[in-house]
Amino acid sequence: MQDKRIKIKPYFISFILIFLITLLGELVKRRLEPTNIVMFYLLAVIIAAIRWGQGPAIVTSILSVLAFDFFLIPPYFTLSVADLQYVFTFIAFLIVGIVVSTLASKTREQVIQRQKEKLQTALLNSVSHDLRTPLSSIAGSLSALLDNDAGLDDATRKELLEAAFFESEQLNRLVSNLLDMTRMEAGALKISRKACELRDVLGATLEQLKEKIGARNIRIDIPDDFPEISVDFFFMMKVFSNLIDNALKYSSADTPIDITAAALKDEVNIEIKDHGSGIPKEDLKRIFEKFYRAARTHQITGTGLGLSICKGIIEAHGGRIIAKNNPDRGAAFMITLPLH
Questions:
Q1: Which CATH entry fits the domain spanning 123-185: 1.10.1200.10, 3.90.226.10, 3.40.630.40, 1.10.287.130?
Q2: What pLDDT shows up at residue 263?
Q3: 194-338: which CATH number, 3.30.565.10, 3.40.50.970, 3.40.190.10, 3.40.190.290?
Q4: Which of 20, 168, 196, 330 is deepest in the core (most CB within 10 A)?
C-alpha cells in the first residue's frame, strides 16, 4: 500500500501544480496573452520531468492543455475553441511538452545512474577496506599461532585467539549488515511479530555485546508496568545492538549509557542515550542514509549501514526512529513503536 501511495504522489502533486497555475492564469489572463500563460504550464512540465520522470511529465502536459483550453481560452468552461490558432497552440504545446519531458527525464535518469555508480564505487571502497582489516588481522593471528618456531607462551596464544575471534565477529557483523541491506532493497525483509518483554530483548542484546561493553555502566530505566511490545525479537536485537554499539564507540569509557522507556496511550518510546560528543548538526539530517558516515568519525571503522538498517527495521514494524543531541551532552536515539 505504501509503494502504491509513493507511485501516485507525483501525479497528485502535478495535478495540484496545474491547479495553482490555472488560478494564476485566471488572475492575469486579462493582462497577458494566453500564449504567454502557456510558458507557466511548460515550466510545470519541466519540473515534473526533472523531479519524477517521463510518466508524470506527460500527464502534466495533457492536463495543462485541457486546463488551458477549458479555463483560459474562450469560450470558457468548454473544450471547444473559437479561434483556430489555439488549436495549433495546443498541438504545439503538447508536442513540446512531450519532447521536453522525454529529454528532461533522460537527463534525470543519467544523473541518477551516475549517482548510483558513485555510490557503488564508494560502497566497494568502504566494504573492501572493512573486509581487509579483519581478514588481515585474523590471518596474522592464525599465522603466528601456526608458526611452531615462534615460541609463543600460553598468554600470547590466548591473546592472538581472542583477537582472531573478535575480528571474526566484526566480519560476521559486516556481512550480516550487507545481507540485511540487500534484503531491504529487494523488499524481502520479513518481520515476524510476537509479544515480547522489552527487558528480555535488551537483556539478550547486552549479553551478545558483553565483550564490547566490558566495565561500561549501562543504566536501564523501564517502568514496572511497561507493557509487552509486538516485535520481531531477532530484528529488534539487531536494532538495539547497532545503537548500543554506536553509543559505546562515540562516548568515552568512563561515561554511562542510558536506556529508558515510556508507554503512552497507543505507542511506546525507547531512548538510547550516550554522554559523548554528540552528532554534528550538519549530519543529523543524513545520519540514517545508506553508507553515510559523519565527517568526524574517520578514525572509527564502519560502512555507514548500521543506522540505515535500524531505520528500515523500525519502519517495517510501523514505527519511527529519530536522532538528536542531548541538551547537556551526547547523542540520543528515540524509537517509537505502536503498541498494537
A1: 1.10.287.130
A2: 93
A3: 3.30.565.10
A4: 330
Q: How confident is the model at residue 127 (pLDDT cuts 50, 70, 90)?
A: low
How high is the pLDDT of residue 119? 60
Cis peptide bond prior to 74, omega within 30° of 0: no
Whole-model pTM: value is: 0.56
Cα 206 to Cα 10, 23, 210, 212, distances in angstroms: 44, 60, 6, 9
Query: Residue ranges per domain, the chain?
Result: 2-112, 123-185, 194-338
- Kindly report the number of other CB atoms within 10 A of residue 115's CB atom: 10
Assign 3-class secondary structure to 20-73. HHHHHHHHHCCCCCHHHHHHHHHHHHHHHHHHHCHHHHHHHHHHHHHHHHHHHC
Cell numbers found for residue 116: 548510483
Report the amino acid identity of residue 184: M
**Is the pLDDT score of 4 beyond 60?**
no
What's the rounded Cα separation, in Å, for the pair 78 and 67? 10
Q: pLDDT tens across 62-95, in order?
A: 888 888 888 888 788 887 766 666 677 777 777 8
**Which stretches of the chain are assigned E, i.e. beta strand?**
194-196, 218-221, 229-231, 257-263, 267-273, 320-325, 331-338
